[in-house]
Amino acid sequence: MKQADINALESTLAHLPVDLKKHFSDQLLGQINAQAHTLIETASSHRICPHCGNDHLVKWGRSGGLQRYRCQNASCRKTFNAVTRTSLARLRYRNKWFDYLRCMRDSLTLRVSAARVGIDLKTAFRWRHRFLHASANANANALSGIIEVDETFFAESCKGKRNITHRSSRKRGGQSNRKYKPDKIPVVIARDRNGHISDLVDPELNKSTIHAFLAPIINRDSILCSDGHSWYKTFSKEQGIAHHRLITLNNQRVIGKEYHIQNVNSYISRLKGWMARFHGVGTAYLPSYLAWRRLFERGQPSEEAWLRAAINVNQQQKPT
């Protein structure tokens, strides 16, 4: 829809009497609610019981606008709907989900989002991490081609914790010691030239965790570019992957014309700049914010795409 058409529509609505405005408002609210229900119901073409994994189901009425099902497994017989055992289970106010997802698309803070959508601050916080839960867990993105990997560090944050026993508190949000590494949380970020990203948050970062992180996501025909850390060298040797080490102390930033880690460093710079608006992210929630940023790297997703990602039908499966 063109901007001129939107302006004309807004002008027409502005001159309508109050009763008609209320009528159209109710109609639009109902359509938004129905659209959310439709997206939820159609997220999976093959539904299974989230309690036992059985696919022999029957419809079992409707509740809260969603179709319910009953498992026909004799040892189960439980009922469920499309969001049971997903991160959106028991989440209320579905008519406000799209408004809130628009706030997340715009990377707004919790207080601004809560005021704009008309929900409580605690609700805004809970919704943020519910909508990000599936993306944070779907982090094992396969990488191929030329892959760049590097580490970055975030200050440890104990936001929301009442008792901090392992260090003295930093009063009034004071900065951590920039030279004291235990105050920093390392994050390893791997990125290929197609824009696929995978990351790892690990306070106890070492060779074994690096190897365990990279092994499932890197194609064996790939070429790995890294800094001088020896753990990347040993990983490449064990896996039989071509590897280029860039030693910055030797002013070695590019090998040939295409082997470097400038793309991943550029992404880290964008990530740090984007995270600054949140004034310190709690370390416990850092994977969710990394997942949030990953969603922007391949284009800005629509509210519908955000909702589909949040539902993540792969969650609705037999528990292990």
TrEMBL record:
It holds the Pfam family DDE_Tnp_IS1595. It comes from the Bacteria. Residues 142-295 form the ISXO2-like transposase domain. This is ISXO2-like transposase domain-containing protein.
